[in-house]
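Crash report, auto-generated. Payload:
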Amino acid sequence: MQHSDVETKEATPLKETKEHSLKGTLYFVMFIGSFIFISWFVIYFLFLSRI
Amino acid sequence: MHLHKYEKIWMTFGIGSLVLFLAVLGVSAFAFGAQPPSHMHSVDSQNLEESVFSAPGVEQIDETTYRARLVAMAFGYDPGTIEVPVGSTVIFEITSSDVVHSFAIPGTNVNLMVTPGHVNMTEHTFTEPGEYLVLCNEYCGTGHQHMQMKIEVTP
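Recovered output after restart:
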């Protein structure tokens, strides 16, 4: 009988990917978003004021 | 799917804004009847003399409502001046006898394209007396900058 001397390898845990900091992206996205949001309502109220 | 905490924030903000914008437009359109200036009516632009535009001008529909049938052409409008009393609602029906023009009253929501073969329609209530300038804001040829008419709103 052949003895298996292959060592069972333990599953290596996946390397945890380090989360990038998205703080700068968040600020910029919210800056552009607020600009669009505010301009939309300014234009809408301009339209309503001229009815 | 893993989403970063910040991604959740801006996606919620984006989708929320979109839903809010569409809801405001939906309520304005379906509950309050707001609509872009348009009309399904069409007309033969080569033969306006035999259409409702044979005698362009203003006619009174009821006490405070008027209908203004106007023809835009290079480079002016027919008639060049109309007169309505203050407080009246004017329904504009406009067509073109040649190329694409527009009909815009600065400072109001009246701003529409005038396309040959189509009758474009919008309405406006004039609450302030005075002389209102109408301009063409669609480039229509060499005399485009001279194309204008006047609406006199009398007290």
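Post-recovery validation: Chain A touches chain B through 15 residues (CB under 8 Å).
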